[in-house]
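Priority: medium. Attachment 1 of 2:
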């Protein structure tokens, strides 16, 4: 037992001696994020022991050294999804050691929405959407205003139900399951200005024709364009319709016009075409004689100006 005890006492100092080499004479580590956005900039910090040495960063693309720190701008790696950064640390006594850090690169999430800026209630409005990186999933919703939206491949269809400003929102989740991002599109839903005049298309010369105008959106103001023989009613009013009488004084084609201004200040014009006919001639088809029969319209040749009103001439 004594020789064994002597052997153990002899080995004990050797077991607890500090290891030789770089392990205790030089150490270095790299601190910083484990990921970088493509195009984004991150800062890496190296810590070497014993202090006072020199740092030598690897020639990684887009890596800019600043002594014990370096900035890296994310780029798309060629052979993997990560960027490799290495630093070599030289101690004041000339010992060297290295540290390696891998940074995962991810594509920035972006959403681009496009479509018209205006629409009408009840109109189907098409929106286009593009997400980066491609291949992700969109979720649509109406974040302001009212209406219904339904997503489809490459975009969505929105239908507003009342006038006002509408904000549509699309949330995009990239295919790698990374951070989602949002895009917005603003729409102004308003009923476009329109006005129509209703009345007959053909009248005998000198006959009075009733006219009725209706504009949308309702409750705007009407103004008839002056025309000889036109007797406006409800001009400049806020009624839902405007009426008037027109008595043509000359044969031919006539155009009656009206201006309409919506409550929001939009303006539009409507018109109505009508023709005033006069009888140019009335001649019998056969020589007149007392035949004892009652003559009818078919027994005469009729000619109106302008032509085309013969079928409505009464006899």
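Attachment 2 of 2:
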């Amino acid at each position: 037992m004594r020789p064994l005890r002597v052997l153990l006492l002899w080995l004990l100092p050797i077991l607890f001696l500090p290891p030789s080499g770089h392990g205790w004479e030089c150490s270095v580590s790299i601190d910083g994020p484990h990921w970088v956005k493509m195009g984004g900039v991150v800062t890496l910090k190296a810590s070497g022991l014993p202090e006072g040495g020199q740092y030598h960063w690897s020639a990684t693309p887009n890596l800019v050294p600043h002594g014990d720190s370096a900035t890296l701008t994310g780029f798309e790696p060629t052979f993997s999804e990560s960027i490799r950064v290495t630093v070599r640390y030289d101690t004041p006594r000339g010992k060297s050691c290295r540290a390696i850090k891998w940074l995962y690169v991810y594509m920035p999430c972006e959403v681009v929405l496009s479509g018209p800026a205006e629409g009408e209630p009840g109109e189907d409005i098409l929106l286009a959407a593009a997400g980066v990186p491609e291949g992700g999933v969109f979720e649509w919703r109406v974040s302001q205003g009212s209406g219904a939206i339904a997503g489809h491949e490459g975009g969505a269809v929105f239908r507003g139900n009342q006038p006002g400003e509408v904000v549509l929102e699309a949330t995009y989740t990239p295919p790698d399951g990374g951070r989602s991002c949002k895009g917005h599109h603003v729409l102004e839903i308003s009923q476009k200005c329109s006005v129509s005049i209703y009345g007959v298309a053909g009248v005998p010369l000198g006959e009075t024709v009733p006219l009725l105008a209706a504009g949308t959106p309702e409750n705007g103001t009407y103004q008839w364009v002056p025309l000889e023989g036109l007797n406006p009613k409800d001009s400049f009013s806020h009624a839902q319709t405007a009426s008037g009488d027109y008595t043509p004084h000359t044969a031919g084609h006539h155009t009656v016009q009206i201006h309409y201004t919506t409550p929001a200040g939009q303006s539009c014009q409507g018109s109505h075409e009508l023709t005033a006919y006069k009888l140019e001639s009335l001649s019998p088809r056969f020589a007149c004689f007392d035949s004892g029969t009652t003559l009818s319209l078919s027994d005469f040749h009729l000619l109106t100006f302008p032509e085309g009103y013969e079928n409505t001439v009464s006899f």
